[in-house]
Design a protein that fits this description.
single chain, alpha/beta, Rossmann fold, 6-stranded mixed β-sheet, about 25% strand, disordered N terminus, binds adenosine-5'-triphosphate, binds magnesium ion
């Protein structure tokens, strides 16, 4: 198998003899229980100065909880934390910050109505006398962004930025505090490829300064590129710690789930020869991103939308679904021309869209897992004005069981689930919805490897039942494994279309980078 050593060598030569670096954090014997859940059971973790240490494990393994114990959000039930050689127990974030710990949490908790600059300096605003010095705050933010090479206007309201940009602001904020230990809990889930590169550059600079970093991510290729060591957790317990350079991807996955999961490429389309076209999109134009896109989708087909981040795939889906206005184009469903001006029209036409931006849309944190699952399907279960409550609850339990959503009960509040498990609930919501055409936008982002294959099976089941699926995915392996046909986009245009039997990583990448001649 392809070892990680080549990359690791490059990494090592850059940072010198990291093996000699001192250990700055030691956690051992850590215990944490919530009612009904043993979230951490005898967990240990160590971090060296100038090291990027990846923390991995399936959704609900206890990663975020361990971080919250470290930074004082949760009080541990038992165990020891030693920071810079001294035993510590923080009772809030302010205390851990003062001790040099900075955390970028999985759930962004920033204030959308404040400006970018205000968010960065909240609680430590520069003052002139009793007043906040707005001008200085803006200038300092500009200088900070310049230093770390990101392009964001500090005077705009945070809520106006994409989730990816908001994440970069959070990263800048953490960097601006003089921290010696930085935790990044799934920072890249919402970032574009370019933003990920920017982040890695910042992380490498911090590494050179001797800052220790704990990095949580489900993306194997990132772990491979950026981390020195990997610690794996499973079901709240410690599995082991390895040097990234000495193991393969498969080794890590095996530590995480106790088995190896391999996804192979689909060899040929499984769509019936005579399957009718259920959706035809002709010359769709929308915003600046979607330029004259046409395609068809057949009954029982999985059509993969491939392309680089920002190629316009989500924009096609949003315009089709009526979430964004169209400038032109026609849509036919079962051969009949339809007008889709808003999402409600799409739903009535039998189209359902699972947004890539699940964090921003659709989570009802203070409601139960069950309520969150059934919300979109309630209408499908009304007969003669009566809601068949028992049936939808049973179905919602079934779907969450299939996706292995980790929750003590269906009545648990959504906010108490781990980040990835919250996403599974939203996916269950759309999978149980009665629609003909499903658009899944990055369905497995933020989801651990084990649950990924469950989502694949559910999608295959839907297709086998005669449902049609458009799957937007930035993971080529996923596109090749799931699709019957692949449509490739670049800069808002459709640049290629391939039957799965002829699709390869190489020809997809060729079309994905086929820019228009100027
Ligand atoms: N405040 C809470 N109340 C009850 N249960 C909780 C609470 N916080 C976390 N849990 C439970 O503890 C377990 C570990 O959750 P945690 O958020 O640490 O997982 P994670 O490894 O970060 O997963 P993900 O990859 O999905 O983010 C889960 O079963 C979760 O439901
Ligand atoms: Mg988490």
């Amino acid at each position: 198998m392809n070892r990680f050593s080549v990359i690791a060598k490059r990494k090592n030569s850059k940072k010198g003899d990291s093996g000699m670096q001192e250990t700055i954090l030691k956690m051992y014997g850590i215990q944490k229980r919530f009612s009904g859940v043993h979230a951490l059971n005898d967990v240990q973790f160590e971090l060296r100065a100038g090291e990027v240490h990846a923390l991995m494990g399936e959704n609900g393994a206890g990663k975020s909880t361990l971080i919250k114990v470290l930074c004082g959000i949760y009080k541990r039930d038992a165990g020891t934390v030693e920071l810079f050689g001294k035993e510590v127990e923080f009772s809030n974030i302010a205390e851990s910050q003062a001790a040099g710990i900075s955390v970028i949490h999985q759930e962004l908790n920033m204030m959308n109505d404040l400006t970018v600059a205000q968010n960065i300096f909240v609680g430590r605003e520069p003052k002139i006398g009793p007043f906040v010095d707005d001008q200085k705050m803006i200038e300092d933010s500009r200088a900070l962004f310049e230093k770390i090479g990101i392009h964001i206007d500090p005077t705009v309201k945070l809520g106006e930025l994409t989730v990816g940009k908001q994440q970069m602001v959070e990263i800048a904020k953490a960097v601006s505090r003089d921290c010696r230990l930085l935790v990044l809990d799934e920072p890249t889930a919402a970032l574009t490829q370019t933003e990920v590169e920017e982040l890695f550059k910042i992380m490498n600079e911090m590494r050179d300064k001797g800052i220790g970093m704990i990095y949580i991510s489900h993306r194997m290729d990132e772990i491979n590129r950026i981390s020195d060591r990997v610690t794996v957790m499973r079901d709240g317990t410690y599995v082991g710690t390895v040097n990234t350079a000495e193991v393969t991807k498969e080794d890590i996955v095996k530590m995480m789930v106790g088995r190896v999961i391999m996804g192979e490429q689909k060899e040929q389309s499984t769509v019936a020869e005579d399957a009718p076209v259920v959706l035809e999109v002709k010359n769709l134009r929308a915003g600046r991103e979607v330029k004259d896109v046409s395609f068809t989708l057949r009954k029982g087909e999985i059509l993969g939308f491939a392309g680089l981040m920002g190629a316009g795939r989500t924009e096609v889906a949003r315009a089709l679904y009526g979430a964004d206005p169209k400038q032109g184009g026609e849509i036919y469903i079962h051969g009949k021309k339809v007008k889709i001006k808003k999402p409600l029209h799409a739903v009535k036409s039998g189209i359902c869209y699972l947004s890539e931006d699940r964090k921003r849309y659709g989570l009802m944190l203070d409601k139960s897992v069950s309520d969150n699952t059934v919300i979109a399907s309630v209408d499908d279960f009304i007969t003669a004005g009566l809601i068949n409550d028992g049936k939808i609850r049973k179905l919602s339990a079934e779907f969450n069981a299939k996706l292995r959503t980790k929750t003590p009960s269906m009545e648990q509040l959504l906010k108490n689930l781990s980040g990835g498990n919250q996403q599974k609930v939203i996916i269950a919501r759309w999978l149980m919805k009665n629609a003909d055409i499903f658009i899944f936008d990055e369905p497995t982002r933020g989801i651990d490897v084990g649950a990924k294959s469950e989502i694949y099976h559910l999608m295959e089941d839907l297709a086998a039942q005669g449902k049609s699926i458009i799957m937007i995915s930035s993971e080529l392996a996923e596109v090749l494994r799931m699709s019957d046909r692949v449509m490739v986009m670049c800069e808002g245009r459709k640049t290629g279309e391939l039957d799965i039997s002829e699709a390869t990583q190489e020809n997809i990448m060729h079309y994905a980078t086929l820019r228009e001649e100027m």
